[in-house]
């Protein structure tokens, strides 16, 4: 009894299912873990009853291994399936928690209101932009007729007088300016048509304002580059973009621009380095290239410094299309005109 009690007490804390059988294979001890796993009662499982917990498909192999090992008095090891007790699931109710979500719901509601306000504002802004574009197109169309009339009558009056007198030269200048304004207006009208998604009408009112003019645009802002290139392209110019002063200087030889547009504040002020490097070149390599500085709006000092550094003109960002076209057209004219 002492030996059995010691084994039984020592087996309790072990995390295994322990059994002990006599030489005749009758079970005389089953640990609490074995009984809990199988769900069998000790009085039913002891003796020969413990074999009833073995899976029926494994019982023959289990019994054969046990008989041979017990007869030979040799240790053995076998894998087999032992039936587990059925889980008894009885519904006894629920346990619940209540969480205050008032703040979260208020935040969700406020977010929804903010999104709706943003949507309405975007719709109103788009509508206002369309109205502005339509108004601008209407004004430009109204301006185009008198400008063309001025050019036509100036040409007619110049043809009636002597070509060399002062009046003839004045009329020539008036006609030249009126036709330049007509081409600027045509380019702006074309730009408004493109912005509105309508088909382009290049060539209807004669050659575009900047037909054949090559413009090198230097800016590290891709959006600004694209915007200026679009306006100049509609006016007939050929454009090339550069994101740094080194790219711009490399492009001079192959592209041979007529006009340079350079941002002054890219990469910490590379625009000043670019114009100094450009003016140090011989004329045949671009040293006399006409150039306009792109400065920040409201920074008058930037414009003064840009002209002092060697630029011929200055444009404030964001650049208005009419100023861009007028400035490029002026810089592209041969000296003396």
State the gist of this model.
This protein has a 5-stranded parallel beta sheet, sandwiched between helices. It has a two-stranded antiparallel sheet with strand order 1-2.
What structural keywords apply?
single chain, Beta-Lactamase, 11 helices, 54% helix, 337 residues, 7 strands, 10% strand, Rossmann fold, five-stranded parallel beta sheet, two-stranded antiparallel ribbon, alpha/beta
Characterise the protein shown here.
The chain is of the alpha/beta class and 337 residues long. The protein folds into 3 domains: 2-72, Beta-Lactamase, CATH 3.30.450; 102-195; 214-332, Rossmann fold (3-Layer(aba) Sandwich), CATH 3.40.50.2300. It is built from 11 helices and 7 strands. The protein has helices at 2-11, 32-38, 42-45, 56-72, 102-160, 166-195, 222-234, 245-255, 270-279, 300-309, 321-332; strands at 19-21, 27-30, 214-218, 238-242, 259-263, 290-296, 313-317. The strands form 2 sheets. It has a 5-stranded parallel sheet with strand order 4-3-5-6-7, with helices on both faces. A two-stranded antiparallel sheet has the order 1-2. The chain is elongated. 20% of the residues are buried.
